[in-house]
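Second attempt. The first submission of Neu5Ac-binding protein had a stray character pasted in from the spreadsheet, which I only caught after the job came back as garbage. Lesson logged: always re-copy from the clean sequence file. Corrected sequence (327 aa) follows.
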Amino acid sequence: MNYIANIKSIALAGLAASLMAGTALAADYTLSVNTALATTDPLYKGLEAFRDNVAEASDGALEVRLFPNSQLGPDEDVLEQARAGAPVAVVVDGGRLAVFVNEFGVLGAPYLANGYDGIRKVVTSDMFNEWATTLHDEAGLDVLSFNWWQGERHLLTKKPINGPDDLSGVRMRTPGAPVWTGTIEAMGATPTPMPWGEVYSAISSNVIDGAEAQLPAVVGAKLDEVITNITLTGHINLITGLITSAAWVDSLPEDLQTILHEEALKAGDIASYGTRDALASLEQQLKDNGVMVEEIDVTPFKERTAVVYDNLGYGDLRDKLQAIAAQ
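This time the job returned cleanly.
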């Protein structure tokens, strides 16, 4: 009897050790994802799908935790944490990655492609994969996928905008990357970089006169409370990526690396098509809340911003990428 009890005791101790090891393993394989977007944004549904599908595909070995509204800090800070090897990821545009690999900046250049399908061809192309490899090897950042489309960006102001001349003297919030500030300046406004989370208070207190963003972000940040006009310029087709630590990804078993990349691509499609399908209702919601949403002839803005490509050395690259998008 004592012998049997001993065996049971040993078995239970082994089970407990296995459970403890499993818990430690799961803790080791936890990825914290930061985004400036609110939980109401259609793109966030894609992040939730990524979280759930990674857990299922990895049999619980890999956990994804989501942090909306920039809970982990500004995008740039999270990128630096990732470069240092931390298991964090961030949804970020190409402009912020251009400081590491210049070609990424062209993804945020004006009027590069229309809608999601065209730009998706660009960010799944062999050319893009070469940029991603360089980013991994030289900057320590891994692209899980870059097919997270947030919509086309428009002008958000307190007055009607009919053309570039109406933007003279308008202090407009934009991300700080050169491709963004260069675009807004070429459109006629004064670019004013600041974190997205500060835009509401900055507009309401007249620190800035307006901003530019995609419709889901406008609704998520409740900017309809502080602006009166949205001008549908569609000047930037906002494609973003889920970026994490290359060192952390490389430390994972190969099967988990594969799961992360495959599920990120699938979830990016979920997020992007969800965004596309929500745009009409979001526009109507803004109109119902008293915001004037106006379509205009964007030809003058296209002409004004064409110089951005040449100023940043993207002239030849633009032609190649537009050809890929048109395939």
